[in-house]
Structures are given as C-alpha cells and as structure tokens.
Amino acid sequence: MQQHEIAEVLDRPLSRELLARDLTRLAYVAKDGTPRSIPIAFTWNGSEIVLCTTKNSPKLPSLRANPAVALTIDTEVHPPKILLIRGRAKLDVVDGIPEEYLQMNGSYEMTSEQRVEWEREVRSLYDGMVRIVITPTWAKLIDFETTLPSAVEELARQRAERVG
Predict the structure, then answer these.
(1) CB–CB of 123/74 below 8 Å?
(2) Per residue in 68-83, pLDDT tens?
(3) Which one of 12, 16, 70, 115 is CB 3.0 to 4.6 Å from 27, fit for a cystine?
(4) Global pTM?
C-alpha cells in the first residue's frame, strides 16, 4: 500500500474518530512463535501510533525479534466500525514517563485529585518506559456501509455476477 493511500484511509472522519479512542488491540508474534493480541492504550500523533509500556514488559523481546504488528481499533456497537492497521514497531527506551503515556490515560474519568494521585503513583513506580512507535504500512477502514471485509466484498461481487 502506498503512503498516500494509507494517509487517505487514516484521514477519513471515521478513522480520525477511531484514532481518538483509548484502546487498541496490538497483535504480534511472541518469541515462542505463537500469536498474541493484547488491549493497550495508545495515542495517534498524526503519523504514528504510540504505545507505552514498562521496560520489563514480556512483549519487548518479541517486538525486537519481529517488529511486524497489527492493530485493531473498533467500536462496541452494531454495525461495528473497525480500523485495521499494519506496521512495524520501533522501540524507544526513555527515562521518566513519556508525555504520550500521560495523554493516553487522560480520558479516563478521574477527579482532579484522583488525577494528581494517579500521576504521583505512576512517577514513583516507573523510572522509565518504552515507547512503541508504529508507523502504518497498511490501513483499512470497515464501516459496513461503504466498506466491508474483503471476503464479504468478494461474496457480494460474486452474487451480483450471478444475479446480474
């Protein structure tokens, strides 16, 4: 997929809405060769998805060995709205707490007092974190109105040819 095609998909209003959500599902291949899919908070900076994790996270050796990842960001209503992204993860070890981590956790409902306590706890627990920066290499938006999963699109095309 060309970069301008990816940008066009990610710039659609529904994609921008999904990219503003709190959670994505990160899929990667574990060191033992088996697939993993985990929910994780994220932020979109306009060109990259940024995830943050602990420096001792079990996913890090896997991502170092195989940086290919897939992300799913979706809704919980029918019909679902689904943004699928593939990319490569780049790991960036940082001292302290990345600003993205504080941003991505900023939409949870907390009083200002709870927020201050949460940030104090986070800063006392982590001496640093790892930013997992994902540059999209492929993207597809499925809204079940204008776009469908490719297998369903194929069935609809075949049906139209039969009926046609």
Answers:
(1) no
(2) 999 999 999 999 999 9
(3) 70
(4) 0.88
